[in-house]
């Protein structure tokens, strides 16, 4: 007779949706106002010593583990089973089931860590906001993100073909006083970040936003590495352009469309204002069509109504 090796999942197990696990109890903790769910691994397990399937339970140890929110906050209790190995020749008499969803000594499920990582790295959400949403500590989110960063390949081993460079002000403006002259100097803490456009991985961070920092970083790179770079995306920055002209003369430079449209709109506004002054001897007024429809001139063509696209005025 053929018998299934796994039990059919019940409704609660299906709703909890933790692969290869069975919900063995679910109850309400009225005092804490949450639900308590206990799960156990529900798949045949081979002894790590002899690879013979074992099922006889030696002991059961329940451990609290953090998990994702399943229709609200759930306190997850993990029932970990120690099993006997009944193989006579095997040196191991008992063993703990290896559980990929929650490795030994883990205080959080694997799916919780993956969800936190995706929320911060893929969706760009703040660690504090993710921690509050999933009811975990900020330190857990930070640890997950750091572990993901540590798993990235070394920058020296990469061969990117497309770079992206952008500046970022990482803190507010500071005023620093010279001890001798007592003169105050305004200091804007800028940094420039170089990324691999294909993967989004940060390749380097340099101080400032002038050509020296980016240029020095490019000069320090291996020649074989720099020869592979085909395109560099920047905002319309003369400093970045100068650094690229010196160090990557053969690479094509692309500019993001946001800044290009911004520059084009600024120029269009300047021309409209100049023509208005030349023709009327004054600035535009509400009675002037060019002034009244000035926002229409700046709209994207694809966002215009069809009648505007067909008969632009
Ligand atoms: Zn064994």
- CATH topology annotation of the largest domain: Nucleotidyltransferase, domain 5
Small-molecule components bound: zinc ion
Protein structure class: alpha+beta
Characterize the overall form.
elongated
CATH top-level class of the largest domain: Alpha Beta
How would you characterize the largest beta sheet? 5 strands, mixed
CATH 2nd-level architecture of the largest domain: 2-Layer Sandwich
Radius of gyration: 31 Å
Keywords:
single chain, 313 residues, alpha+beta, Nucleotidyltransferase, domain 5, 4 domains, five-stranded mixed beta sheet, 11 helices, elongated, binds zinc ion
Would you summarize the structure shown here?
The chain has 313 residues and is of the alpha+beta class. It has 4 domains: 97 residues, no CATH class; 37 residues; 101 residues, Nucleotidyltransferase, domain 5; 52 residues, no CATH class.
Can you characterise this structure?
The chain has 313 residues and is of the alpha+beta class. The protein folds into 4 domains: 11-107, no CATH class; 114-150; 155-255, 2-Layer Sandwich (Nucleotidyltransferase, domain 5), CATH 3.30.420; 259-310, no CATH class. 33% of the residues lie in helices and 26% in strands. It has 11 helices and 14 strands. The chain has helices at 11-16, 110-122, 127-134, 138-150, 211-220, 223-227, 238-247, 257-280, 289-292, 294-297, 306-310; strands at 21-29, 34-41, 45-46, 53-54, 57-65, 74-84, 94-96, 162-169, 174-177, 184-187, 190-196, 202-207, 231-234, 252-255. The strands form 4 sheets. Strands 1, 2, 5, 6 and 7 form a 5-stranded mixed β-sheet that branches. The chain has a 5-stranded mixed β-sheet with strand order 12-11-8-13-14. Strand 11 and strand 12 form a beta hairpin. Helix 3 crosses helix 4 (138-150). The longest helix has 24 residues, at 257-280. The protein is elongated and about 100 Å long. The model has no long low-confidence stretch (mean pLDDT 84). Bound molecules: zinc ion. Residues 47, 49-50, 52, 85, 87, 90, 92 line the site of zinc ion. The site of zinc ion (ZN) has 8 residues, from loops.
